[in-house]
Amino acid sequence: MKESCTPIEALAERLIELSGRKSLSKWHREEIDSWLDELFELIAAVKPERAGELAEKATEVFYQVSGYSKEDIERAEKDEEELISDLEERLREMMEKQFGEGFPDDEDEDWDEQDDLFGFTSEQKREKTKQQAGGQNKVETSDEDKSPGADNESSLTDDARHQGVDKWLAKLFRKAAQALHPDRESDPAKRAIKQETMSELLAAREAGDIIHILTIYTEHVQQGPAEVPEEMMQALCDNLTEKIEAIEYQKEDFLHDNPAMMFVYQMLYDKQKKKQKENIALQQERARELAVMATEDRAYMRNLNCLKELLSERYDNKAILSMDEILSQFR
């Protein structure tokens, strides 16, 4: 893909060069900007620094043609932000005037018991929902139907549950730490392994990683599944959910900081290896096609008239695609 990127860079440079011509109309320049954005995105996937250099060059040409300076653009953006802020403030004042000072916001604790904009209180809405349900889902549970431990389970507060988890976890940790104590191992190789595993165990305790502690316990203390009390299962599920979310955040941060990896992940990755191979072959073919198209467009773009012809083709193709989207809504 880096090899196919070279003709795309050459096309972008040619577009930037011709975009400085005075005779181009407004729509011509808008189409060139759109074209360049597409090319910059392709280049940035494999050569982010090069894409940045070309973008800066295009900005310089824009300043020369428009007659504006960088300071003028920044000033205009600042004025736009101030205008938006002013409009938001005026809109807020209008809302307060319309609904009065008593109009509750999201943090108003009494909002649940106040009439909403349709005239129903929350109590009325609950009663209306019950009527609509027709009482079909309502099931009466007698004392005889309740399980023996139901009252104890319902009376178990969150604090008590956490205390129970902590005690159970501390017991697992102590047994695992005793089994992994390096001083109890005479074999140097095995002692090194235990030291490394002990470090993992300590790190897991520091991070509150219940799953990792349980994994080390089952590997080095009790072979096979550990006995997990029923009341601890929810804590394990919550801990596993937190781990999954943490991994997702790490993945998103990594991809955000690595444009090339983001491109690879979005275009090529799949859980099935067969599908991955298909994606790779498809992107390789697409890269070759883009390189050929870029080479042909660059060669055809001999002068300004040729550029205008290509821009007209792009504009017409977009109009056709837009019409197809509109028509598809009525099919």
From TrEMBL:
Annotated coiled-coil segments of the chain: 70-97
Disordered: annotated segments: 122-159
Keywords recorded for this protein, A-Z: Coiled coil
Keyword Coiled coil in record: yes
Name this polypeptide is given: J domain-containing protein
Organism: Oceanospirillum sediminis
